[in-house]
Amino acid sequence: QVQLVESGGGLVQPGGSLRLSCAASGTIFSAYAMAWYRQAPGKQRELVARITTSDSTNYADIVKGRFTISRDNAKNTVYLQMDSLKPEDTAVYSCNGRNAYTKRDYWGQGTQVTVSS
Question: For residue range 4-15, what is the model confidence (pLDDT) as tens digits?
Fold first, then answer.
């Protein structure tokens, strides 16, 4: 059974940084495109960043230049480095994995990120 477990969320001041991690188990991690989504209160879930099985990346315009997604297949982990955080980045961040062959999606439980002074 595929499991995704996020960590690294918390409270940070505006302009600060956080690094989120998502550890996968129960599967061949390298066969999955990975992504980070977020959902703020009262808003729809939105894609933040995605990384493919061949390490191609894409980002939402609102985080370009501030966030960096990366993966370590040896550790079955995907990361989201978030710099220059703004209050509007406050949300629950969730990890998504999509099997490149079956196209099935898996989700983590989410981790709260709060940007506030």
Answer: 999 999 999 999
